[in-house]
Amino acid sequence: MKRSAFFISDGTGITAEALGQSLLAQFDGIEFHRVTLPYIDTVEKARGAVADINESARSDGQRPIVFDTVVNEEIRKVIARSDGFNIDVFASFLKPLEQELDTHSSYTVGKSHGIHEMTAYKDRIESVNFAIDNDDGARTQQYDKADIILVGVSRCGKTPTCLYMAMQFGVRAANYPITEEDLSNDELPKILHAYKDKLYGLTIDPFQLAAIRHERRPNSRYSSLDQCSLEVRTVERMLKKADIERINTTTFSIEEIATRIIAARGLKRKVGL
Amino acid sequence: MKRSAFFISDGTGITAEALGQSLLAQFDGIEFHRVTLPYIDTVEKARGAVADINESARSDGQRPIVFDTVVNEEIRKVIARSDGFNIDVFASFLKPLEQELDTHSSYTVGKSHGIHEMTAYKDRIESVNFAIDNDDGARTQQYDKADIILVGVSRCGKTPTCLYMAMQFGVRAANYPITEEDLSNDELPKILHAYKDKLYGLTIDPFQLAAIRHERRPNSRYSSLDQCSLEVRTVERMLKKADIERINTTTFSIEEIATRIIAARGLKRKVGL
To answer: Average pLDDT for residues A167-171, to the nearest whole number?
Structure first.
């Protein structure tokens, strides 16, 4: 059974997508055809969106589900008149919030993922640059400025996790790959000793690691299961011996790895919220 | 007036934060103290969250606002009994959706930001690697594999935008910085001619550019308003002459720049949704 789902927003559409996804994920059996319509910030554009929704309703033979996080009431009313089934976030929650907060909302568009403050913006960009500059153990001189240093074998998820932490939390995250030359024994590489409090280990199932590495270098020693197992086991012993907290990334998304480490370490969010 | 706001989730907390932020952003006059409590996936942890909420209620002398995207009903009921003002997303929307879709939801935790499919996961990681490998014009040999190539002066937002596109959309985004040597005339650098269809320009207000550059190299020629103005104006002429679409990044967040370009170009999302 195919069904269409629309995520409609006057801004980026990120909130509408996040919310809609959480809800639709609860309906396993149904295959949704997903469409995001961002920047629907005029009545004119809303009419265009309605035309799209109605077209889907016709071709699917079923009402599309419409997640709507548009702030402006006039625009929302246009969307509400479509042939879709409307989940209207602002209509549902804004009135009760106004009552609770005993004030009127400002009904301003696109406030949630806009650029709020120059300082927070710069913090974020600086954190992204920090993650790139301190990726892959290329440099270690800036480790004293890092909020966290991820440690693990090549391809276990360190780089995207660092970038996600930088982008979403403004956290300065460096990463150090444990490579062949560090694997001769179970001792933490010397360079890391001074930063033990900042280290966090990533481990991974060797089968998955082999699959991931195979994409990059097919049929190499690097991607062989033997090599992957050896590296993962040695690093796990190393982390255990040095008493460094770790997370197994195998079944987690980047968001999950990042938010779990941030929660575990009590790192402070510097941007966004 | 200070007021606490809690974002409570059985997963990463990303949806609760996104939704809560959109709504709170409408209340300008109020300063919210924001707390995210992710991975509240047991009744025990929910009781801990309630203790935190009640403690805030006491110290603020006001009910905290609680945004709750927990799926499990038993856990939600615990949270609903706190001293906070509860915005319960699943309670509000899941029942009507079940009715509309004529089926029961699976009430499964953490489905929205989890790792769904290995292929999508790999796509995403590969895109992040692509963005890093093709950052800052360092390499151009892979431009034929790029979905989009961002062009602009140094520090106008190219790198974080590419990384965001990679992370959130699985789009392969490269970027090429227009540097001093490209600025001798208004012609697009030769290396870019073959990829004209993939180019997208970023421009920025020279004052803001100077402020951003000043953070990196204070009181340098690089960060002087004269130099920034010259570069921005030249690049704008260059883009106009070559008829390349562009966006002024000055007042936009990374999310906005990325989603606007993706919408303008009709790029397909390869991950996430």
So the answer is: 91
Beta strand B65-68 with A2-8: parallel, antiparallel or unpaired? Answer: unpaired
Which of B12, B86, B94 best probes binding to A when mutated, by most A CB atoms within 10 angstroms? B12
d(CA B74, CA A42): 41
Residues in CB range of A44: below 8 A, 6 or more apart: none
Q: Which of B15, B103, B159 sits opposite A19 (nearest CB)?
A: B15
Report chain A's mean pLDDT, rounded to a whole number.
Answer: 91
Short-list B86, B167, B94, B102, CA closest to B130: B167
Does the beta-carbon distance from A21 to B112 stay under 8 Å? yes
Is the predicted pLDDT of residue A106 greater than 80, yes or no? Answer: no
Q: Is A11 on the interface with B (CB under 8 A)?
A: yes
Helices and strands (H and E) in chain A: how many: 9, 8
ipTM of the complex: 0.84
- Cβ–Cβ < 8 Å for A171, A261: no
A-B C-beta contacts closer than 8 Å: 208
Q: What share of chain B is helix, strand, coil (3-state, %, to 5)?
A: 50, 15, 35
Q: What percent of chain B has pLDDT over 70?
A: 95
Per-position DSSP letters for A173-214, written without gaps between them: EEEEE--GGG-SSSSPPGGGGGGGGGEEEEE--HHHHHHHHH
B182-202 pLDDT per residue, tens: 998 899 999 999 999 999 999
Return the axis-axis angle of helices A89-101 and B89-101, rounded to nearest 10°. Answer: 150
In this prediction, residue B210 carries a pLDDT of 95
Whether A14 and B212 lie within 8 Å, measured CB to CB:
no
Residue B30: phi, psi to the nearest 5? -105, 135
Q: How far is CA A45 from CA A10, A78, A193, in A?
A: 10, 10, 58
Strands of chain B (E only): list them: 2-8, 31-37, 65-68, 85-88, 148-152, 173-177, 199-203, 246-248
The CA-atom distances, in angstroms, between A255 and each of A52, A161, A271, A273, B168 are 32, 8, 16, 16, 10
Q: Which two tokens stand for residue B85?
A: 């003002």
Contacts of A205 (CB under 8 A, 6+ apart): A232, A248, A250
Q: What is the DSSP-derived secondary structure letter of residue A134?
A: T
SS3 of residue B150 by DSSP: strand
The pairs formed by B101-105 with CB atoms below 8 angstroms and a separation of 24 or more are B101/A3, B101/A27, B101/A30, B101/A65, B103/A27, B103/A29, B103/A30, B105/A26, B105/A27
Whether B106 and A15 lie within 8 Å, measured CB to CB: no
Question: Which of 55-74 (B) contact A at CB < 8 A?
Answer: 63, 65, 69, 71
